[in-house]
Design goal:
Elements (H helix, E strand, L loop, with lengths): L41 H13 L6 H14 L3 E5 L2 H11 L7 E5 L4 H9 L3 E5 L10 H7 L4 E5 L10 H11 L2 E6 L6 E2 L2 E2 L6 E5 L12 E5 L2 H11 L32 H12 L1 H19 L14 E2 L5 E4 L2 H4 L3 H10 L15 H7 L7 H9 E4 L7 H14 L3
Parallel strand pairs: 2-3, 2-4, 4-5, 5-8
Antiparallel strand pairs: 1-9, 6-7, 6-10, 8-9, 11-12
Helix pairs in contact: 1-8, 2-8, 3-4, 3-7, 9-14
The structure holds pyridoxal-5'-phosphate.
The site of pyridoxal-5'-phosphate has 14 residues, from helix 3 and helix 4.
Length: 410
């Protein structure tokens, strides 16, 4: 036990009265920097109030406005708003006719929702490892995992960096595979001049609270086919025929027909009210995060941690997550201890993600082993996501930088 009041394993400037507390943290506890806090302004608040006053809270004209605006932004011919990206993925898999006996290849470094959507569709997920530099699914490993049962590929544009779409589109075409892009991180992502989500049969976006454009909870399916869009719409609202949401409108009651056992996945006007204004500021938000990203890059250049590689030429990186790699052998600090130290500095952090085979359900059900996905496994054990919301001030960013330095003992 040190006699100077410092904490075992921490540099001398760290001292604490009780576990998890440090004297003189970078930020005071009442200024805890929440990871992924959304940037909500007066325009969103007024639009939500307008919805509340109008009496129309559910799926209605504001959802239609949001869908049109999203289509105009991405260039996708058809956009269908739903209540999450998880729902978007589930419906896209179902609308692709995937089910029991079909294998769907996805990345070993993603959120559980990608996997669960495949499982809920009744198909069998198959993992491919990631490229260690881009952290995106490695097309060469996808090719190795294709079997006669493979029907689809679900790439994730990790952290907002586009996957190698030339390779994935080529592979899908050669093997007759359906391509469903998980664009949860990729609102602004572009590859070769085209928007993420427009390369495959479906693109699935998230507007969850931490995302670049938020609606609280929310998602969007984009597609180039009117037929596929209509199928998603029907499945998203109980399997009821098109425009069922109008059945209580001022145009008079309308009967609907149920044509499938659908789901309750529709977006509400209250959510779209937020999304319309968030999307209106999407370019401003991206510029802000680019600025924060550059500050982090510069500040961390000399530290014993990994930082994100530069975006590939001809692409737009959505800069959704700034992830550093804290490897004990080079940083001198175990990753999980680094997470605790950042928290004690009152700076919120995230982990995106533990590799999929680390989770007990998946490895028990599918027998996956971490050693078969070495890059995803290593990243999952060393990655830390730092705050990067467009609502962060320069002072907030300076605090994050100082906290990282201190937590590394620099
Ligand atoms: C890669 C990925 N896919 C899917 C999802 C699910 O999104 P949602 O929360 O909108 O269902 C997330 C959410 O964080 C995600 O990060």
């Amino acid at each position: 036990m040190p006699t100077d009041g410092s904490v075992v394993g921490y540099p001398a400037w760290v001292s604490e009265g009780s576990a998890g507390r440090v004297r003189d943290p970078v930020r005071a506890p009442d200024r805890f920097l929440v990871f992924g806090a959304p940037d909500i302004r007066e325009s969103e608040i007024e639009e939500v109030v307008d919805s509340l006053r109008s009496g129309w809270l559910g799926t209605g004209p504001k959802v239609a406005r949001f869908e049109n605006a999203f289509g105009a932004y991405t260039g996708a011919p058809f956009s269908v708003a739903v209540n999450s990206c998880t729902a978007a993925l589930h419906l896209s898999l179902l609308a692709s006719g995937l089910g029991p006996g079909d294998e769907v290849i996805t990345t070993a470094l993603t959120f559980c929702a990608t996997l669960n959507a495949i499982i809920h569709a009744g198909a069998t997920p198959v993992l491919a490892d990631v490229d260690p530099a881009t952290m995106n699914i490695d097309p060469a490993d996808v090719a190795r995992r294709i079997t006669p049962k493979t029907r689809a590929v679900v790439p994730v544009h990790f952290a907002g960096r586009p996957c190698d779409m030339e390779a994935l589109v080529g592979l899908s075409a050669r093997h007759g595979l359906i391509l469903i892009e998980d664009c949860a991180h990729a609102i602004e992502t572009r590859y070769g001049g085209r928007h993420a989500g427009t390369f495959g049969e479906f693109g699935c976006f998230s507007f969850y609270v931490t995302k670049n454009v938020v609606t609280g909870e929310g998602g969007m399916v984009v597609t180039s086919s009117a037929e596929r869009a209509a199928r998603i719409k029907v499945l998203a609202l109980h399997g009821m025929t098109k425009d069922a949401w109008r059945r209580f409108s001022d145009e008079g009651y309308r009967h609907y027909g149920v044509v499938d056992a659908g789901y309750k996945y529709n977006m509400m006007d209250i959510q779209a009210a937020i999304g319309i204004h968030q999307l209106g500021r999407v370019a401003e938000g991206a510029r802000r995060r680019e600025h924060l990203w550059a500050r982090y890059d510069e500040a961390f250049a000399g530290l014993p941690i990994g930082t994100p590689s530069a975006p590939e030429p001809g692409t737009v990186h959505a800069r959704h997550l700034y992830t550093i790699l804290v490897d004990e052998s080079t940083s001198g600090v175990p990753r999980d201890e680094f997470l605790d130290r950042m928290h004690a500095q009152n700076v919120g952090v995230g982990v995106h993600y533990l590799s999929v085979p680390e989770h007990p359900y998946y490895c028990e059900r599918f027998g996956w082993l971490m050693e078969d996905y070495p890059h995803a496994a290593r990243i999952g054990r060393s990655t830390v996501s730092l705050p990067l919301s467009s609502g962060l001030t320069d002072e907030d960013a300076a605090d994050v930088i100082e906290a990282v330095r201190r937590c590394l003992g620099q």
